[in-house]
């Protein structure tokens, strides 16, 4: 009776098939299941934030892992709303976009840095590559609405900025781009004036960071926007005038 032989090609084929199945399962886990888990944690963070703002405390400095603000990007649609978490470790980013704790707070002069996942884990920054010059990024705190506008991308003029701010883009802020790709270790993007380590800040900046390309940690996508409006929540219940930027669409 003739014995069948298993060829090297057959073994390799089986290995490649198994590897393909494993990769598909991993992609499903990253792109779907972690979104479900993060969605539950983000909902919990939103509820905690609502409760915190209803019953404000004297110490306004957030603790690590705590939600303290909300982010809206109208160009991504009316449903884009995320509670921002203090801290950027894996547990923090699983709950939502995370604030780099050594950077400024929203509305302050300097750089308010926020990290977020691009694939899976809620993927709050999945579409950062679609942002355009002057698109709004709105941050809501317990007391204020702070609106930032994306700085020039691909040479498009930022006519949404004041004349003074536009002049600064040709001066001390000339190295600050609306969007660029860099290496993971480029901490200069989080400097008070991004990319200028010792320069004194004269404007409020928000910096968003995420992985690039998708499904990879090889590089970082960076988005910078400049503060253009800071509205107080005038009423005692925290309501009041909302920024008109929230009504913009893509």
Folded structure, characterized:
The protein is an alpha+beta fold. It has one domain: Sortase (Sortase, Chain: A, Beta Barrel). It has three helices and nine strands. It has helices at residues 8-54, 90-95, 163-169, and strands spanning 67-72, 81-86, 98-99, 110-115, 136-140, 144-150, 179-182, 204-212, 219-232. It has an eight-stranded mixed β-barrel with strand order 1-2-3-4-8-9-6-5. The longest helix has 47 residues, at 8-54. It is globular. The protein starts with 7 loop residues before the first helix and ends in an 18-residue tail after the last strand. Mean pLDDT is 88; it is low at 19-26. Keywords: Hydrolase, Membrane, Transmembrane, Transmembrane helix. The active site is at residues 117, 211. The chain crosses the membrane at residues 12-33. GO terms for molecular function: hydrolase activity. This is Putative sortase.
List the helices and strands and how they pair.
Elements: H1 8-54, E1 67-72, E2 81-86, H2 90-95, E3 98-99, E4 110-115, E5 136-140, E6 144-150, H3 163-169, E7 179-182, E8 204-212, E9 219-232
Parallel strand pairs: 2-3, 4-8
Antiparallel strand pairs: 1-2, 1-5, 3-4, 5-6, 6-9, 7-9, 8-9
Brief summary:
The chain is globular and about 80 Å long.
From the 3D structure, determine the CATH topology.
Sortase, Chain: A
Order of helices and strands: HEEHEEEEHEEE
Low-pLDDT residue intervals, each spanning 5 or more residues: 19-26
Q: Any idea what the shape is?
A: globular
Which CATH class? Mainly Beta
Strand-residue proportion = 15-25%
InterPro entries: Sortase, Sortase_Class_E, Sortase_dom-sf, Sortase_E
Protein name: Putative sortase
Keywords: Hydrolase, Membrane, Transmembrane, Transmembrane helix
GO molecular function, one term: hydrolase activity
């Amino acid at each position: 009776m003739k014995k069948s032989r298993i060829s090297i090609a057959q073994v390799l084929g089986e290995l490649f098939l198994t590897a393909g199945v494993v990769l598909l399962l991993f992609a499903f886990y990253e792109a779907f299941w972690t979104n479900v888990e993060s969605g539950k944690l983000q909902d919990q963070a939103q509820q905690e934030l609502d409760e915190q703002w209803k019953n404000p405390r004297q110490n306004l400095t957030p603790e690590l892992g705590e939600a303290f603000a909300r982010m809206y990007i109208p160009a991504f649609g009316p449903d884009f709303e995320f509670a921002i978490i203090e801290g950027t470790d894996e547990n923090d980013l699983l709950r939502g976009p995370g604030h780099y704790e050594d950077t400024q707070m929203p509305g302050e002069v300097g750089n308010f840095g926020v990290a977020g996942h691009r694939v899976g884990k809620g993927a709050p920054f999945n579409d950062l590559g679609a942002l355009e010059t002057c698109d709004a990024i709105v941050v809501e705190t317990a007391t204020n609405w702070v609106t930032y506008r994306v700085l020039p991308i691909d040479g498009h003029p930022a006519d949404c900025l004041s004349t003074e701010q536009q002049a600064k883009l040709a001066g001390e802020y000339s190295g600050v781009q609306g969007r660029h790709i860099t290496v993971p270790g480029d901490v200069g993007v989080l400097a008070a004036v991004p990319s200028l380590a010792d320069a004194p800040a004269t404007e409020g900046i928000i910096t968003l960071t995420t992985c690039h390309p998708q499904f990879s940690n090889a590089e970082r996508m960076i988005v910078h926007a400049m503060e253009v409006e800071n509205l107080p929540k005038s009423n005692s219940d925290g309501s009041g005038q909302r920024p008109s930027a929230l009504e913009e669409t893509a």
